[in-house]
Description:
By secondary structure, the protein is mostly beta strands. The chain has 1 helix and 7 strands.
Amino acid sequence: MPNASKECQLFLDDSINGGNVLIAIGRAYMECVPINTVQGIPLGEENVRVTITILKLKHVLLPIPTNEATIVEEAVSKFVVWPKRLIIIDTSLSQASGS
């Protein structure tokens, strides 16, 4: 598949207020297999590869930092690892672009 990515919203846990906080909009590559790696980090069963395209919060630590990026702002347009449970596939973004 040439483009197996999907528009998504990327969240982080809000340990102070509970729930999740929207951090960025990006693309999730859901067809990745657990043995794949991103910048040397194995995806495992719980994570997927994502790219960040639009920031909502800039100076927030990535859930899984890499050698190249530790905060969300540094990860724009790069592949990073994100926990599946903190990703929502955004069907409204896909439908809006198809109209």
